[in-house]
Specification:
Blueprint (H helix, E strand, L loop, with lengths): L10 E3 L7 E3 L11 E4 L12 E4 L2 E4 L17 E3 L4 E3 L13 E3 L4 E3 L4 E5 L5 H13 L16 H5 L8 H46 L7 E3 L7 E3 L3 E4 L4 E3 L3 E2 L4 H4 L3 E2 L4 E2 L4 E2 L14 E4 L4 E4 L8 E3 L4 E3 L3 E6 L6 H9 L1 H10 L10 H6 L1 E4 L2 H44 L6 H5 L17 H4 L1 H10 L1
Helix pairs in contact: 1-8, 3-8
């Protein structure tokens, strides 16, 4: 798609170093000529539809997810109209990955901590959103902001250099990028469906192995535990507190001996896999509250939102967030790798979810974890089960990694395409004119959104409750 596009024939110096040359017929006015801040307090609770900025989209928050998440009165929120642009202006210092802008398709209310913007006359609202979104992807806003945590406010937008093509060209840019976005998202969804099927296949394999062993003809016995059901009759059952020890005592990650250490938090672990997605040091993350010391080979288990099944074996001496438990295994009874599979299993997770409070951030406490029943065979049989699981799921893991790499490349391509088009490096007027008509209502370019991530919690919780 990008290969057939050409640059503009006539360019000019924008006068802004990070914008470089721009089309000669485009204007470069300050932000105050392009946007205006809108402040509509929800006085008298005139609006009750709650909106949320999630993964770069403005979405309606379901009523069942509001409990424990909202202030006593929605009068503190602000009213948002369709076509307005919402910015999350806080914490630029520590969060350099989030998508900070969303385009509202609904009337509703959103926290007054966010900035609501309207485009001025002569600027299509969809194009205005795309412009700020492109700047966001280029990380322009991280050089702005004020205060200890670099928060944005309206004065940061007033002098912001903006690129404004003629109205018909704004329409062409929006149409072209919307068309590209639809196709990229379809391909990503197809890859995500493949990943989901492979993960389900893996989970079924692991579930059979850790609840029945490898012998399909094994004799079973009632476990006496309602959420577990039957287990092989030669397996043992003991409470967690007799098989694993949770480390106590927190340290300050800002201390010199700790700040260079790897710090593992729940968001570093892929749900249900026991795999770390990426590593960062405590200093990289700006950690400023108590963390636990973790020794290589210990299990780290996330106590928050247990339905997401986040646990991993520490690959080195490191720190973990206070949202996680470092666990030392009693090796005379359990292999560490086997206990990890139990912690990731659906029966164990059902127990953990039932023990966690149904509030904004469900959490399983130490006492409940300690009372959980664990089921296991001999050490030799555990070794065979772990080896069998690895052999069975390795092909799926390879296919999943390849699909994830393809998704990452698509997102990188999409980011570059948006930046090139909106900043005038590629001319899409002719390409947009040749696009076929589509019956679908134009999307608002919810770009770079991993829809599986945004639905991860609800999907897995439903699976556990089935």
């Amino acid at each position: 798609m990008i290969a057939g596009l050409q640059p503009y024939s006539r360019m000019k110096d924008s006068g802004v170093q990070w914008l470089g040359d721009v089309p000669a017929h485009w204007e470069v006015p300050p932000g105050r000529r392009c946007f205006k801040e809108i402040q509509r307090p929800n006085t008298g609770l005139v609006e009750k539809t709650v909106l949320s900025l999630s993964y770069g989209r403005i979405v309606v928050k379901p009523e069942e997810k509001l409990h424990g998440l909202v202030p006593a009165s929605f009068e503190t929120y602000q009213i948002v109209e369709p076509g307005e642009i919402i910015c999350r202006p806080t914490d630029l210092q520590n969060d350099k990955t989030s998508l900070r802008f969303g385009y509202s398709g609904n009337r509703g209310i959103i926290t007054s901590a966010y900035i609501a913007l309207q485009t001025q006359e002569g600027i299509e609202s969809s194009y205005g959103y795309l412009l700020l979104h492109a700047y966001d992807l280029k990380k322009i806003f991280y050089g702005l902001g004020s205060g200890l945590r670099q928060n944005l406010d309206w004065k940061d937008f007033k002098k912001l250099p903006c690129l404004v093509p003629p109205p018909d060209e704004q329409t062409a840019i929006v149409r072209f990028l919307d068309y590209a976005d639809r196709r990229i998202r379809r391909y990503i969804r197809a890859k995500q469906k493949l990943i989901k099927l492979l993960e389900e296949q893996k989970q079924a394999t692991i579930h059979r192995a850790v609840t029945r062993g490898l012998d399909p003809n094994v004799r079973l016995k009632p476990s006496g535990v309602e959420w577990l059901g039957e287990v092989p009759e030669h397996w043992k059952l003991k409470r967690f507190k007799f098989l694993g020890k949770i480390t106590s005592g927190q340290v300050d990650p800002r201390e010199p001996q700790h700040k260079e250490k790897i710090l593992i938090a729940p968001n570093h672990i892929k749900s249900g896999t026991g795999i770390i997605s990426h590593l960062e040091t405590a200093e990289d993350q700006g950690a400023d509250s108590g963390k636990y010391v973790v020794l290589q080979g210990q299990i780290i288990y996330s106590k928050i939102r247990p339905n997401l099944r986040k646990a991993v074996i520490a690959p080195m001496d490191c720190l973990c967030s206070a949202d996680m438990y470092p666990i030392t295994v009693r090796k005379s009874e359990l292999r560490t790798e086997y206990l990890l599979q139990l912690l990731l299993s659906l029966p164990f997770t059902r127990y953990a979810v039932d023990c966690s409070l149904r509030v904004a951030m469900p959490k399983v406490n130490r006492e409940a974890l300690g009372e959980c029943w664990l089921w296991y065979p001999s050490l030799e049989e555990q070794d065979r089960i772990v080896a069998s699981i690895k052999q069975s799921v390795d092909p799926s893991n390879t296919a999943i990694a390849q699909a994830e790499q393809e998704i990452a490349l698509l997102r990188e391509y999409q980011t570059r395409l948006i930046a090139y088009v909106v900043t005038g490096k590629l001319d899409v007027r002719e390409a947009a004119a040749q696009l076929p008509q589509e019956d679908e209502t134009p999307a608002t370019l919810d770009t770079l959104i991993d829809e599986a991530d945004s639905e991860e919690e609800s999907d897995e919780l439903e699976a556990l409750e089935d």
